[in-house]
Amino acid sequence: MGNHPFTLNDKLVLVTGASSGIGRQCAITCSRLGAVVVLLGRDENRLSETMEAMHHKDRHESVQIDLCEFDRIPAMVKNLTQRLGMISGLINCAGVSTTLPLNALSVDKMNSFMETNVFSALNLTKYVVSSSNFSKEGGSVIFLSSVMGVVGAKGKTLHSMTKGALVSASKSMAVELGARKIRVNTVSPGVVETPMSKSAIYSRNKEALEFVKEQHPLGLGEPEDVANACAFLLSEGSKWITGTNMIVDGGYLAK
Ligand SMILES: NC(=O)c1ccc[n+]([C@@H]2O[C@H](COP(=O)([O-])OP(=O)(O)OC[C@H]3O[C@@H](n4cnc5c(N)ncnc54)[C@H](OP(=O)(O)O)[C@@H]3O)[C@@H](O)[C@H]2O)c1
Hints:
Belongs to the short-chain dehydrogenases/reductases (SDR) family. This is 3-oxoacyl-[acyl-carrier-protein] reductase FabG. This protein has helices at residues 21-32, 44-52, 73-84, 107-128, 157-177, 195-201, 206-214, 223-234; strands at 12-16, 36-41, 61-64, 89-92, 139-144, 182-189, 245-248. By secondary structure, the protein is of the alpha/beta class. The chain has a single domain (12-192, 224-247), classed as NAD(P)-binding Rossmann-like Domain (Rossmann fold, 3-Layer(aba) Sandwich). Strands 3-2-1-4-5-6-7 form a seven-stranded parallel β-sheet, with helices on both faces. α3 (73-84) packs parallel to α4. The model has no long low-confidence stretch (mean pLDDT 96). NADP nicotinamide-adenine-dinucleotide phosphate (NAP) is lined by residues 16-17, 19-23, 41-43, 46, 66-68, 93-97, 116, 120, 144, 146, 189, 191-192, 194-197.
């Protein structure tokens, strides 16, 4: 019997932001679907908590790294492939978010957000998809964008700038890497309950939270809603899907 199209059996998958929220759930979901997962994040304790929740914990590894230390990335990726084999999947979840009016933006802030949300992910992807590190059979790269990469909201200029950049850069990567059967897509969530969104929403008043909920016809999302979409995009079930932006938003953009 052939493999189920949605299995990730024995694929080597890297997940950034695996110490929290959506990245953590992506790592756990991939492990349940059979992947060997490398968890990437900065906070060692929270990486260990993710590892504890993984299926077959002994198969996976975690690497404590700040992805903005760009020069460390090539050796880190090489070390992984020399020991674990070729990579078939990458989920770029690491990121930061903020709400700031336009008049509060400085060039330093713009640079820092681009570095964390865009440059670090593109830099990592560049080394992961190099022909000496990525599976000859091809595979899948995913970037976590956001509905804010497609539409706007007050105070979201900085965030939208970085998330829109991921949507458009992915399309060119999809074209460039298609011949090697490497697919590149973005996933754009609405508001998902994670430490990131909680620090943004719950710090405001109850009415602000109610307003955000009302914007999502299916209510706020859970990390697994996004992780399941990412797992599909990693699997062979999506082998003819590339250069797309998959909206996973409980209906936020349907209005
Ligand atoms: N939650 C939402 O509502 C929502 C909506 C749309 C899009 N998204 C996107 O989904 C992704 C995950 O969001 P989340 O809600 O899961 O956020 P989260 O819980 O705050 O987690 C963010 C993750 O990014 C990692 N990270 C940040 N800067 C890093 C760096 N320089 N190097 C390495 N890792 C770094 C953090 O690692 P450490 O904690 O170890 O430092 C953490 O694991 C983000 O790209 C976010 O923009 C989220």
